[in-house]
DNA sequence: GTCTATAGCGTGATAGAC
DNA sequence: GTCTATCACGCTATAGAC
């Protein structure tokens, strides 16, 4: 331990990802240099290229990893019996998951335009997949007669924007806990879509 | 006309702002160079500094001008008699105003972190001022008894996020007109806050 | 796997000619 | 008001020693 040179491979890889996530979230992808990331990790800039082919791959891996985690976590949630209960589960899941990863959420929304076109298409596909699960819930509730949204596609956009927006104002030491926020947002959601 | 050198001062100033707006919106502030802006305008990089002290001032002027315009436009709207009608006016105004200026909205949300602290505080103050007009409407409706939001502050965040989110998916040649979108969003808003 | 050194280029901003 | 030229520096990515 306390080595200042030599092999750290088991540590360095994850630490590069953590530093990149933190710095990209704080300053933006374009404003962060490979030298800054290296300094943050405690290695020289050249050493980063043992772990990533280039800066673009670093960004893509962060976003791809985040989207995979999001979809896996939602898939792992139990599926309640009624559309109303499924919608409540989605609202609470979305808020909880997003508030637990503010930096990953931030770059997932802010840095999309810095992805190469191929990478962008992949991330955009995964995001659409996630959003379509909400649209599915809304459609189920519509056909079943428990919801009355004017347009499921627009209601999906509206709800996702509303829920994700929590990340822009929520503070850990604030007036409300995650559960209290979730209660209020579920209340508003419910009123918005209920018959 | 068709001069390639000499004074164009009446034209160049606005054209620099337009180019900066377009390029910042497309690639991001940090990723755009003064040379790119100059090329877009058709002058050399040095000439830009006759119009702006530096790149930062260019960004700040765009955001400040946009916020001033937003507040002035809302102030110029008529004020309906009841909270419900005022809320409807706000919803329709917000969507219409934002959809008419997608690039300015985009950089207003994406480039805040690239503002110097002093500039950030000014823009943030103006934004809070705009949002507080919505909170005021919600409070009026609450005391009057026509609304039933659980928390006016959170309802403000939720509504602003929901309404601004339209900019992320709306396309001019899409399925719905601005008025149709506004109708649907007003319907959802109404259901969300109505008693 | 990390280091040092460097290639090749782009950056924001300024000086001075016209 | 715009141009050309330039300063001083930072950038990504690579090469080769260890």
From TrEMBL, chains A, B:
UniProt DNA-binding region: 33-52
Matches recorded under PROSITE patterns: HTH_TETR_2 (PS50977)
Keywords assigned: DNA-binding
InterPro entries per record: Homeodomain-like_sf, HTH-type_TetR-like_transc_reg, HTH_TetR, KstR2_TetR_C, Tet_transcr_reg_TetR-rel_C_sf
Positions of the HTH tetR-type domain: 10-70
Gene Ontology terms, MF aspect: DNA-binding transcription factor activity; transcription cis-regulatory region binding
Pfam families documented for this protein: TetR_C_24, TetR_N
The protein's name in its UniProt record: TetR family transcriptional regulator
Native source species: Salipiger aestuarii
